[in-house]
Amino acid sequence: MYYAHFGLKEPPFKITPNTEFFFSGGNRGAVLDALVYAITTGEGIVKVVGEVGSGKTMLCRMLETLLPQHVESVYLANPSVAPEDVLHAIAFELHLPLPEGADRLHVMQALQNHLLARHAENRRVVIFIEEAQGMPLETLEEIRLLTNLETKHDKLLQIVLFGQPELDENLNANQIRQLRERITHSFNLGPLESNEIGDYLIFRLRTAGYFGPQLFTKGAIRKIAAASQGLVRRVNILADKALLAAFADNVYSVDSKQVDRAIKDSEFGAERGNIWLRVRPLVLALSFLAALAAGFGLHVLWQRLPAKQGAAVSPASLPSAPAAPVASVAPPVAVATAEPAVVNQVPVQSADNLEKRLQATQAWLASQPASTVSIQLMGSGNADDLRQSLKNLGAELELDQLFVYRTRSNGKPSMTVLYGTFADRDAASKALMALPKGLRSNHPQLRTIGGVQDEVKKTQ
Asked: Cα–Cα distance between 390 and 387 in angstroms, integer?
């Protein structure tokens, strides 16, 4: 909408990772170079940790483009893969021919043969695992066992774990200490510093075709830096909204006024700016109780005081209880009780496609044997986004073959979308390859119903 207004050829602040917009500042370039070196010359497991929205996925995409041709990469985006499914997922990404109904032993043998053949050709294989902090410890242990595949001199497989800080907490568990000992390189992707936000903004604008001076004033940059906490995804969201606000105001630069509107319109901005709204009900309730206690205490004191001779002691002669505060705080307490009791729950509107698919999926999961295979298309913690995605998917796929179930991602409520009901992995693989190109680019993965059922049980 605002692109022509600012002389842009494309959107500069999309949150979808685009390697053309990779910003090497903020230590990103140095981390990327170190990762390329660690993968091409090192052994064992490499770990990259960063907060939500710090740019881990972008870094992973850059690695895929920069690695030499002799390095073959496998990308696992689904953190909730069950231990019995992870080998099949890797084999599928490597396009390994497997017999129908192949068990774990056959898959492991096929994988080892493939890796030995690649090693003989002087090629390396690396597995990128995103959102590793959400992966069950049993699955991480299964992946750790893959590092035992080796020759006399070299490891046959390189593994790179991308995760949030919770990954470090998981790796501190005693039962996973063997994996922790295999980590040879660790990198931390920190947030951008305040003085790097301006460079980041103008870099993205220039990449999108902008040729003028810095669009964001110093005050606007400071506010974006403070509200985003240096997380690039938040910077992108705020910058995009601020540009839209400037376009609506018919101005050609972004100042604090537009950024304030962007912050107000952003969920994380509202969360930071409305701390008082979260604590206000508690403060008011405590004030109300204190006022009641003061009034009750004065009443008891009046009852116990002896009357003076010749004159009755009236309540009016004593300090009165503070009636005004009681009257003033009572209405806000009533308002506070109207706020939602559960904040993190994913809301579901009635009588819409999302609710219908959730209900249909419950019956579907209960009726399918554990060996049934489906295709995992996507996941989201935002119900509105998922409704729109289902609407888009319904235009390309059979709606009654789209299934949605509740789970948790990064400790927060989320929902996952599956497609199709297949008797075995061969049939599911053929259906996956027949998906529209846009869906295949999101790296869909095969899931057994048994693995999904176990995942659902853990979230109940």
From this structure: 5
pLDDT tens digits along 21-78: 999 998 999 999 999 988 888 777 999 999 999 999 999 999 888 888 888 888 888 7
Phi, psi of 97 (to 5 degrees): -75, 120
Give CA separation, 333 vs 194, 204, 281, 339, 452, in Å: 40, 47, 6, 10, 43
Q: Measure the CA–CA gap between 265 and 288, rounded to whole angstroms.
A: 33
Give the sign of the dihedral formed by CA 89, CA 93, CA 95, CA 96: negative
DSSP result, 162-196:
EE-THHHHHHTSGGGHHHHHHEEEEEEEPPPPHHH
Sequence letter at residue 338: A
Name the strand (E) or helix (H) holding 131.
Answer: none
d(CA 319, CA 166): 56
Taking only the tens place, the pLDDT of each residue in 168-180 is: 888 888 888 888 8
| Three-state DSSP state, 343 | coil
* Percent residues over pLDDT 70 in the chain: 81
- Listing DSSP states for 384-448 in one string gives HHHHHHHHHHHTTS-GGGEEEEEEEETTEEEEEEEEEEESSHHHHHHHHHTS-HHHHTT--EEEE
Residue type, 303: Q
Specify whether the CB–CB gap between 403 and 357 falls below 8 A. yes
The rounded distance, in Å, linking the Cα atoms of 322 and 40 is 74
Per-residue pLDDT of 393-436, as tens digits, reads 887 888 888 999 998 876 778 889 999 998 888 788 888 888 88
CB 192 within 8 A of CB 227: no
What pLDDT, on a 0 to 100 scale, did the predictor assign at position 271? 47
Gap between the Cα atoms of 142 and 139, Å rounded: 5
CA 8, 12, 17: angle at the middle one, nearest 5?
145
pLDDT digits over 111-123, tens only? Answer: 999 999 988 998 8
User: How far from 416 is each of 122, 288, 409, 419, CA to CA, in Å?
Assistant: 39, 44, 10, 10
Distances (CA, A) of 128 to 57, 326, 440: 10, 60, 17
